[in-house]
Structure formats: C-alpha cells, structure tokens
Specification:
There is one protein chain. The chain is mostly helical. The protein has one domain. The chain contains 12 helices and no strands. Helix 5 (119-134) packs antiparallel against helix 8 and helix 8 (165-174) packs antiparallel against helix 10. It is globular and about 65 Å long.
C-alpha cells in the first residue's frame, strides 16, 4: 500500500485533534506546544486517552489537551530521573569490572581472548572498541596515543570509560565464568546471570531515555531476569508482567540501594508519581506496591 498522508501545519494539527474529540481550551498555548513537540511524538501519549477497541479509535469524551500534555511532561520527568539513576549504576558497574579484572590480569586484560567464552563475539567487540578509540576526542585517550606506542590501545581503565554501555554489557556477558566475574555480581548482591540480564535492560532503557522515547508504559522486548535470593531487599510479590516500568524501576532502586544507601532517588520518584494523575497500573505497579519493603 502506498503511503499517501500529507504533512500538516500546526493549525491543521489542532483542527484534526478537535475533529477527533480532543478539548482544546487555549489555542495559543497548544500552538506553542505543537510548534516545539512533534505531532507524532505527542500522538503517542494521546493513545491512552482513546477508545482503542473501536476501528477509528475515538478520543474518550471529555479528554482535554492539558491531560495529554501533562502525561507527556510526566514521562519527560520520569526519563530524566531514570537517566540520572542509570548514570550512577553504569559508573559503578564499570568501576567494579575494571578494578577486579585489572588487578588480576593486568592493564590490558580485555584484549586477552583466553578470558572470553565466544571467540567470534570477542573479535566483534574488539573491532568495535578499536573504532570507538579511533574516533574518541577524550584528552586522556589522545594523550595515550601521543605518549605510548605499545600496546596500541589504552588500558582498561581508560578504554572502558569511552565504550558504550551496550558494548560494555556484551563484554561482561562474554567473559568466562571466573572469580572476578562472580565478584562483580556479588558486589551488587546478584547472581551473574541476573546481573547480565539487568545490564542489557539498563542499556536499553538508557537508550530510550537518551532518544527521548516514551518510557512510562513501555513494554520491554525481553523481560529482565528476576532474582530469587538477592542479598539486598527485593520484591516480595513476583510481578505479573516483568516487562513493565515497575520492574525496571525496582531493579534500578535495588542497584542504587547497594551503591549509595543514602540516595534520594526513591523519594524523588515517589514525589513525581504522587504529584501527577498518571495511572500507575499502566506502568505495571500492583495495588499493594507501596507496602513492598523495597519501596517503603
């Protein structure tokens, strides 16, 4: 089928929204919002206010533009909170891997194929590392290149500061089962297999936040593993759907409790949810979530 939709200017977008049944009380303010927020991005949040059981998906009677834009800004604030938390999680994970493996295997351990399970994945990741080093403009990378001729690449504590979180998680997964690999997971009170799963999930969510994509009711393509006997406080009630933001946020909270027990992130997140009219059930939060010790 040939795509035939024509682009609409802001005035036409407003008229279309009104035709669909959206109440717009302040045209000037709405024009300003839609001039700075892509209509297609805005439409993603309108979906929750539609009767999606009907073919033409009419907007629920009484829905206002303000309700939809409030959900948009809630999601924006949620992404900012999650991105802030994942920064601390990512830095802590990198530090643990760098410290444990460097102290045991030396400065350039990550280039030793004998430490990895899958040679093809190792070669793939080393090629990616080489590309990321070659295009890096970090001062410490440029200094290494000017100062040293061997080894060609910088040591782990430099290299692992510039590679992507996604690549970092793949490298950790491909490492052979070793005391060092287990020590990293043990530091966070998790089995290795669970930590690997969480690292992939965190990398995915981090990219969602970085690209300003919808997070508040997103369903993950693959669910993170749930720990059975974690060292720190986890959820008593097994989530009915482990692919929801509730599970992601719980995993982030678990990691932060390990990294910095005095953090304020949980309270900041609770404040955001308390001061909004967003349906927490759409985020996967069960009715009794507030009674979970993890969230108290």
């Amino acid at each position: 089928m040939q795509f035939s939709k024509s682009p609409l200017d802001v005035n036409d977008q407003i008229n279309l929204l009104r035709q669909k049944g959206l109440i717009i009380n302040d045209v000037t303010q709405t024009t300003n919002y839609l001039s700075n927020i892509n209509y297609y991005r805005f439409r993603k949040y309108l979906y929750s206010f539609q009767n999606n059981q009907q073919p033409n998906r009419p907007i629920i009677v009484g829905t206002t533009f303000d309700q939809v834009i409030d959900l948009y800004f809630f999601d924006k604030s949620l992404r900012e909170l999650v991105a802030r938390a994942l920064q601390d999680v990512e830095v802590a994970l990198r530090a643990q891997v760098i410290n444990h493996f460097s102290l045991t295997y030396g400065s350039h351990w990550y280039e030793d194929a004998n430490l990895y399970q899958n040679t093809r994945h190792f070669n793939r990741d080393m090629n990616t590392i080489a590309r990321e080093i070659s295009r890096s403009s970090e001062t410490f990378i440029l200094h290494y290149k000017r100062t040293y001729t061997q080894p060609m690449n910088p040591p782990a504590w430099m290299t692992f500061e510039i590679i992507s979180f996604g690549l970092f998680s793949k490298i950790y997964e491909n490492l052979r089962n070793s005391p060092e690999k287990r020590q990293v997971a043990r530091h966070f009170g998790l089995p290795v297999i669970v930590l690997i799963s969480w690292m992939h999930t965190f990398s995915y969510v981090r990219n969602v936040c970085a690209h300003h994509s919808r997070l508040w009711n997103r369903q993950l393509v693959s669910a993170p593993r749930l720990p059975r006997r974690p060292r720190m406080q986890w959820l008593y009630q097994t989530p009915s759907n482990p692919r929801t933001p509730y599970v992601i946020l719980s995993a982030i909270l678990y990691m932060l409790n390990t990294i910095d027990p005095q953090h304020q992130w949980k309270q900041d997140l609770k404040n955001l949810m308390t001061n909004s009219n967003v349906s927490l059930s759409d985020m996967g939060f069960p009715q009794n979530w507030a009674s979970e010790p993890l969230w108290q």
